[in-house]
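Hi R.,

Here are the chain sequences for the assembly we discussed:
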Amino acid sequence: MTTVAEVVDQAYRDDTGRAVATLIRVTRDFDLAEEAWQEACEQALRTWPQRGVPRDPTAWLFTAARNRAIDRLRRERVGREKTAAALQIAELEAMGDDMHEIPDDRLRLLFTCCHPSLALDARVALTLRTVAGLTTREIARAFLVPEPTLGQRLTRAKRKIRDAGIPYAVPPREALPDRLDGVRAVVYLVFNEGYEATEGELIRTDLCAEAVRLARLLDHLIPDEPESRGLLALLLLQHARRSARTDADGDLVTLEDQDRSRWDHELIDEGLALVDASPAEGPYQLQAAIAACHDRAPRPEDTDWPGIASLYDELEHIRPSPVVALNRAVAVAMADGPDAGLRLLDPLANDLDRYHHFHAARADLLRRAGRGTEAADAYDRALALVGNDAERRYLERRRAALIT
Amino acid sequence: MKYLLMIYSDEHAFEAMSEDERHEVYAAYDELMKDLAANGHMLGGDELAPTSTATTVQVRAGERLVTDGPFAETKEQLGGYFLIDVDDLDAAIDIAARIPSVQSGSIEVRPIAE
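And here is the predicted structure of the full complex:
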């Protein structure tokens, strides 16, 4: 039996983005829109237990939110603002109950929240708050910042949207590719923060799940965009391994040691279908193709390492970066032996000296090459740089297991 | 909304240009300004004389302090400005991206406070 709280919770998760996006379009006021929707949900929690859950909870909530917004526009708009408010009220009153008959405004919301003139951390916070409907507290927890700090970040961002004239619109065609890339970067960043938290505990599955939802939304709102589809595939294929990535103590389990029966095969099938449907050309598509090579292998030894190495080769070609070069070196080592990998790692030492993954990868290859003493030094270097508890414990175990 | 587009560029590089090259830059500016004026977006704009002509004035505790030049030695200097009236920030960014100096310098886009 589902409780009222569960029904409201579900509606909140499913409909916040869409409801808030439309309320913002009409009122041009982020705070008013968020608060009106919030109050509608609170009203439901108060009244539904007595009156029963309405037949269409979303329609009820959206109507209640519109009424709250209309009340506030009547009360709060004074002087010169009154004319604009009257038009907004008329538009809100003219809307039918069925939110899904109104055009979906989430795309403009997404572009506004991810506008490049906002600081990157503000884009992330604003997207999670307004598009995904996370609370300020949830976002603050996920990014390990005090709640007031995050609240200020959101307030400043909303003020900038208003004062700098950031439009609430889908960008024109010529600006679209760049801006779409910007939206994808925010979604990817949310996923990565959840997938490999920079501090404290290793994985914050909730944040990863939100990123998957956002990637799905983006792919739904602008369909057939190869890189958006690539991003969705990449996130699905990585998120599918979430339960196997840590053990009972919360410690990191590498791909090689993961219990592959614990992978989420439903997500993998969905991700593989997306990868197989189009050629891998852009950076997200290539990364998705790499993730697919891992997820396809029933056992670690079945992994197509030469295939992965050549995908990294292509990725390095279109998006050269030391980190991609590092991954390519590791794949080459798996395909052709540790010495071949080490030869590719050496030239990266300058660029990646402060990056713990570089020293951890080097340590692993040195270990495989039977150079224990050098491997121990490399593990020490990685341990000095690592920020995340689970990874630290993992590196300590690997270092202790060396035969020197 | 009104925006001030502040044009920052390396004035020494500009001075080092040949007569022909400078002529080309001015022609590009003329063309853009004509276009903006025709669309009703242009409220004003000027090129500034080089920073070597600048004076900085402060009054502290009633005392007037007049010094030469701008405060900080930076690689790019404010060399001119456009004052425009457009719908929103994206429209202002589009115009900023068409200013000839954007190719080597940078444009700061600032809304005029309402």
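Chain A is about 70% helix and 0% strand. The first helix of chain A runs from residue 4 to 27.

Let me know if anything looks off.

Best,
T.
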